[in-house]
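Much of our argument rests on the idea that a fold can be written as discrete symbols. The record that follows shows the chain in one-letter code together with its fold in token form.
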Amino acid sequence: QVQLVESGGELVQPGGSLRLSCVASGSIFSINVAGWYRQAPGKERELVATISSGGSTNYADSVKGRFIISRDNVKNTVYLQMNSLKPEDTAVYYCNAEIFTSELSVLLTHWGQGTQVTVSS
């Protein structure tokens, strides 16, 4: 089975930077679109950024110009570089990936367990 594990979340001061990592493991043939989502207490989960298998990216307006999503297809890892962090970026960040487990398998979406990012003085 496929597992996604996020890491890198921690307490950081406003204006600081963090890099989140999401490592996919298990039976993986290829990863299609991957992305990062976040959810603050009492709010709906929202899309932060996505990256296609070819490297095309999309960002939420709230993080555009500050965050950078990238991927390493050899390592099956997706990254989220977060710069100029603001208190409103505080949330649990979740990794999401569309994964083929074999050449002829269906494309399924997988989620990681989440990693807490807290931006505060």
